[in-house]
Amino acid sequence: MRAVVVSEYGVLPEVREVPEPVVADGSVVLKVEATGLCRSDWHGWMGHDSDIVLPHVPGHELAGTIAAVGAGVSGWAVGDRVTTPFICACGSCEQCLAGDQQVCPNQLQPGFNYWGSFAEYVAVPYAAVNLVRLPDDMNFATAAGLGCRFATSFRAVHQVGKVVAGERVAVFGCGGVGLSAVMIASSLGAEIIAIDTNSEALTLAREYGAVHTIHASADTVAQIHELGGAHVTIDALGSNDVVQQALQALRPRGRHVQIGLLPSGVNLDVGRLIGQELTWLGSHGMPAHAYPEMLDLVANGNLNPQQLITRTITLEETPAALAALTTATPAGVTVITP
Q1: CB neighbours of 293 closer than 8 A, spacing ≥ 6?
Q2: Using CA atoms, how far apart are residues 291 and 76, in angstroms rounded to an integer?
Q3: CA dihedral 223, 227, 228, 232 (to 10 degrees)
Q4: Residues 6 or more apart whose Cβ sits within 8 Å of residue 102
Q5: Can you give the residue ranges of the SIS domain (predicted)?
Q6: Which of 28, 49, 128, 210 could anchor a disulfide with 194, C-beta 3.0 to 4.6 Å?
Q7: What is the full per-residue pLDDT of the chain (338 aa) written as tens digits?
Q8: Domains of the chain: residue spans and CATH
Q9: Which helix (H) or strand (E) holds 213?
Q10: Nearest-CA neighbor of 214 among 254, 176, 242, 253?
């Protein structure tokens, strides 16, 4: 099969022929119909993830059709249209049995622990707890964006951040995760403040429900407080500077939700965290069993993740698009069609 192969961190990957994945007991192999290009893939390519072993195939946001079914997998057949969370949980540990597959200690992540979906085929382990059947009218490009950015934002905003109507939510970073958070929080009736350095991204944020947009600067916190301060802040980028601004922008007893990865760590103003009784919340993906609520909202038109897709590229265009994330994040979501 053709795949995007990383042979050296930070060096442009190449598209080449590699062996197809072999279906294992309890797993399936998917023919990849669409896969998202995410900043997490960039982090992996840059060597920020210790689980990656070179040579490596990135890609963790995916949708496709089942091409092979392993022994012990029931209820699924070749040709079924599916997606999967980027966290493939084991299904049998204490966390999984409690319904918390997103923090499974035995999890496997395509594109990190093993070869991912920047390829024509990809394996999905522990199929019984990780496959999500797609609605017949949902296209693969839309479904691919659900597995990481949109599903992650849905859980972060709705289930972890518990955003409710009337709250003021400041979203820092309007890439795929941030724009998803804007759309989801707006659908819940929140007043959205979107912050980014990219004017095009801020324009999209307004289209997806942001009431206020702020071009990130040294005055960002002051501008948020002029609007009344935030009940909830979301770091959808992953930056020490953003974290500090997000905490400073909160009203007393506000909630901060951290989605963006922080590979270099972060320094917290613990005094402010205590004195203002702020809450710091981490959110990491969403388990397969939680998808139906999100899919129902998409089906009835309350959420429109397909609107986030601004670019579709081929495998051959993927290495350059991955490298381009070093200097800028394009507005909206980029989807790859192998």
Answers
A1: none
A2: 17
A3: -80
A4: 85, 87, 89, 155, 284, 285, 286, 287
A5: 159-305
A6: 210
A7: 999 999 999 999 999 999 999 999 999 999 999 999 988 899 899 998 888 999 999 999 999 999 999 999 999 999 999 999 999 999 999 999 999 999 999 999 999 999 999 999 999 999 999 999 999 999 999 999 887 889 999 999 999 999 999 999 999 999 889 999 999 999 999 999 999 999 999 999 999 999 999 999 999 999 999 999 999 999 998 888 999 999 999 999 999 999 988 877 788 888 899 999 999 999 999 999 999 999 999 988 899 999 989 899 999 999 999 999 998 777 778 999 99
A8: 2-149+286-336 (3.90.180.10), 162-282 (3.40.50.720)
A9: strand 212-215
A10: 242
Please name which of 112, 7, 109, 10 lies closest in space to residue 52, comparing C-alpha atoms: 112
Which residue carries 């958070």 as its tokens? 181
Nearest to 154 by CA among 330, 310, 304: 304
Element (H, E) at 170: strand 168-172
For 265, other C-beta atoms within 10 Å of its C-beta total 6
CA distance 334 to 338: 13
What sign has the CA pseudo-torsion 120, 124, 127, 131? Answer: negative
| Tally of CB atoms within 10 A around 263 | 10
β-pairing verdict for 14-17 and 2-5: antiparallel
Residue 155 is which amino acid?
A: R
d(CA 85, CA 67): 18
CB 234 within 8 A of CB 181: yes
CA distance 145 to 87: 14
**Count of CB atoms situated within 10 Å of the CB of 107:** 24
Contact 64, 138 (CB under 8 A): no
